[in-house]
């Protein structure tokens, strides 16, 4: 997760010392760790400050409430796949992106996202932040990959919204989110070879 750096310290409307942008990455990492460990309900501003090794004033200069803190943090989850890999072929791209998805869901960011699901039932702002943050990054990465494949003549148009597109990540997400079993390389290989690769072959443009 990449913290946005600013050329000058940002002063909060709350007054006091200026905000130090260099602390942002440390604080956000602490938030993700705590969300994964205790979930949204048990997360406190005091705990975030202690985990990050900063004073509470440092936290409150960035976020007024726990809700603001979490919404802002999850909007940046999944930046690791913001730029999809370009291997030169659709099969290579899909396989590489599947690996990035696995890495992401098994990271502290993925664990934090999973811990927020119960809270999303009664926190519409969390749902919106998750949809506009992690899910949007994920969706845009796959869309860019399919657009390249279409430009190379490897797949038919509009693959981004197809069953083939869903299949590239659906079983990985199911195993991570619902089943809770490890996403071992052998499993990802099997999904690619038995499900995804045959669908990619069927997605080739018809001969003129």
Corresponding CATH superfamily of the largest domain:
Tetracycline Repressor, domain 2
What is the terminal-to-terminal distance? 45 Å
Number of strands: 0
CATH level 1 class label of the largest domain: Mainly Alpha
Query: What is the strand content?
Result: under 5%
Radius of gyration: 20 Å
CATH topology of the largest domain: Tetracycline Repressor, domain 2
- CATH architecture of the largest domain, by name, is Orthogonal Bundle
Please describe what this structure looks like:
The protein has helices at residues 24-42, 45-52, 56-60, 66-74, 90-105, 108-115, 117-120, 124-151, 163-179, 185-202. The protein is built from ten helices and no strands. The protein starts with 23 loop residues before the first helix and ends in a 6-residue tail after the last helix. The longest helix has 28 residues, at 124-151. With 208 residues, it is mostly helical. 63% of the residues lie in helices and 0% in strands. It has two domains: 21-74, Homeodomain-like (Arc Repressor Mutant, subunit A, Orthogonal Bundle); 79-202, Tetracycline Repressor, domain 2 (Orthogonal Bundle), CATH 1.10.357.
